[in-house]
Amino acid sequence: MPGHFETPEQRQECQLETCLQFERYCRRATACIFTLTTALRLLGVDWDPEASVTSMPRLHADVLQTVVDHRNNKGRDRHALARPGTKRIAPTAVFVSSIPIETIEIAEGITCTTPEFTWFMFSRFLGLKDLVILGDAMMRRNTLHEPLTLDGFADLIARVECRAHRNGIRPPKGITQCRKALELMEEHTDSVMETILRLTLECYGLPRPVVNLPVRLPDGRLIFLDLAFPEAMVAVEYDGRHHSEQWAQDSLRHFAIEASGWAYVQVIGLGFITDADKRHVAELVGRLIRERTGKNYLLSTPLPLECVPDRRREAWKERPSGLTVAC
């Protein structure tokens, strides 16, 4: 049964074995389509939703989540999922989709929802911040599934909305949340904390940073900055490592970046926990941008994340520092 593992590879291997056993004993009319937390583990997505779904037992990792089309939501299929043999393997939760289910075969006999469709399924249960974190995690530079892009998520939203419009029905729950999340998501991020750092800076009114900007150092090396503000030449990087043997290497990287003309801000994990920590980081980055460009973006009160994708963002940028903007 799935538990807490150190790597996505280990979670994927364990989940696959559980699903294979489940399918052997299920005797359902058709193969199960796994989704939500189960699909995340089968796909090897580097994000564990455990902390976000604590109050929703049906989404816990020790439960196998499956999805059925609303037209095929037959009682006998639910009964098959609840057979005594399958209960010994893992408890199950059945979800119903009102739109055509998009699937991918992970291994012979094991099918789950595609990464994009899994993300869409989660939009009914996750807040905006967690939905952005999940989307970013699915678009990492190194993933166990096929590389994803923002266009893939946008295409899914378009298909869902077009189908609803064509049938004269309201789009399914979660579609508005998906649209907002899509505007905040970024490709090629490296960690959950990098995503949280980026969102924090944007909530404080700072311009949207470029993710993994390539920079050529004076010695000819090509490096990638986690978060960069090219106009101001300000780089911000998150480092959650705490081992002393890495300090020397990090210091050399720091000096090389500054030698290239960049102002460098390194955010350490232990220094980015409380709201006060996050405010301090935002103020530091905002001050560096102001000193280098003459532009003052920093807000005294952070915006709710729901306001960041709003079309009024350009108006916020022009407001003087210290002005609180109502959403």
Question: If you had to describe this structure to a student in words, what would you say it looks like?
Answer:
The structure is a single chain. This protein is α/β, with parallel strands linked by helices and 327 residues long. The protein folds into 2 domains: 8-184, no CATH class; 192-317. The chain contains 12 helices and 9 strands. It has helices at 8-26, 36-43, 75-81, 84-89, 115-122, 128-138, 150-167, 175-184, 192-203, 247-259, 275-293, 313-317; strands at 33-34, 64-69, 92-97, 103-107, 110-113, 210-216, 222-229, 234-239, 263-268. The strands form 3 sheets. It has a 4-stranded mixed beta sheet with strand order 6-7-8-9, sandwiched between helices. Strands 1-5-4 form a 3-stranded mixed beta sheet. A two-stranded parallel ribbon has the order 2-3. Strand 6 (210-216) and strand 7 form a beta hairpin. The longest helix is centred in the N-terminal third of the chain and has 19 residues, at 8-26. The protein is globular and about 65 Å long. The two termini are 44 Å apart. This is DUF559 domain-containing protein.
